[in-house]
User: Which sequence fits this backbone?
């Protein structure tokens, strides 16, 4: 898990889906002031692997199963607040047979106003992602931290900043 555009695209895709669902929930429940509306969404993203943490190889595949649970609170003034808990179950397989398994979890919370502008921030961490040899032997553990902040204007993300860090690596 390194700082890569592919990981940022996956997170952005998930957040775009959630923002769309939240807008739909808002439109159908705008008359209910301060009433929580629960939601649940799952999505799977398959793409190229991030660089292998020890060798740098990018020849492989990444699968990211994203689960979003939470609720939206609609307010009488037309605004609403999103409370989400995002779990990413990640597996990356490289051509040399090594693979990484990680579960990255964390909260996201953001506001959306009546004109469709939203900002959000969050942090996720995975304190024991394991890198495995082709035979299944653990080669080492990683500490992964993800922090992000973004803004949507009328459903379009003109701003998304992310920081993906491997805090500790066996390499």
Assistant:
């Amino acid at each position: 898990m390194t700082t890569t555009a592919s990981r940022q695209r996956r997170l952005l895709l998930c957040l775009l889906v959630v923002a769309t669902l939240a807008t739909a929930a808002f439109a159908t429940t705008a008359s209910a002031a301060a009433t929580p509306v629960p939601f649940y969404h799952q999505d799977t993203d398959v793409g190229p692997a991030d660089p292998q943490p020890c060798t740098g190889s990018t020849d492989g595949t990444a699968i990211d199963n994203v689960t979003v649970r939470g609720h939206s609170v609609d307010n009488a003034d037309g605004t609403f607040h999103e409370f989400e808990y995002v779990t990413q179950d990640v597996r990356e397989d490289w051509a040399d047979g090594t693979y990484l398994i990680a579960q990255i979890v964390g909260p996201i919370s953001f506001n959306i106003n009546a004109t469709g502008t939203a900002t959000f921030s969050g942090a996720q961490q995975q304190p024991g992602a394991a890198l495995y040899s082709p035979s299944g032997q653990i080669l080492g553990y990683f500490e992964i931290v993800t922090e992000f902040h973004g803004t949507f204007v009328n459903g379009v993300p003109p701003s998304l900043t992310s920081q993906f860090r491997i805090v500790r690596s066996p390499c």
In short: Residues 92 and 104 are 13 Å apart (CA to CA).
